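pasting for ref
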Amino acid sequence: MRNTLSTAPPTAIFGMIVVVFYLVLMLFAPVLAPYSETELVGRQFEPWGGAFLLGTDNLGRDFLSRMIYAARNTVGLALLTTIVAFLLGGIAGLIAAARGGWVDQIISRLVDVIMSIPSLIFSLLLLTIAGTNALTLILIIGVLDSTRVFRLARAVSMNVVVQDFFEASRLRGEGLLWQIRKEILPNVIAPLIVEFGLRFCFVFLTISALSFLGLGIQAPYADWGSMVRENATLISFEDITPLIPAGAIALLTVSVNFIVDWFLRLSSGIKITKG
């Protein structure tokens, strides 16, 4: 592990530092934030400095505290949603490839129907019908994104099930769970890990976009997307405060992609030279 990290390019090291920083904010938000995320501590749009390092927002809440709490809310929700998407799509893709036949056809056609509808429009429609809360966000976005995971998991697994060693496991009478756990999963884990990082970025951006539109994480909880919307009026006064949560979104997305790119190079055997 230490030797692997020593060969990491500067971009991957930068990405790991940023991700660890965000994880610390997510785990220790109540300790690090000077105020709570809902506490009214001053007047509206107070300037930077003094008791409020980044000023206050449109309701007089400490902007820095809400930025810290938003890391826990936004990143945590995106992570849970990505896990749900991978559990649904990954398991379905592995089963479809291993079983084949009518099982593969039914699951694949159902996925095709869901993917034929633009995901953002579909999620807006479902959230409008079902209401907006953390659970519905996780389930709706998780199910929609699981279709992309299914396509990848099925595609890479199909390359395994045609191999002789997998056919031998069938002839030995091995069960479906054994075949997936012992034969398929070890041979497809690398692309699935890469997809997990990329899928997290897409889910993270989707949740932020929905929050910006008012259908994501709801008030009074802090979210970077909604913080951009709530404080956007400051741009007219040449105040860059609304760009801070937007920058936080962009920084995490780029950092995760740096790590994913490095892992993809490692798993594909491409050598990275320094200098």
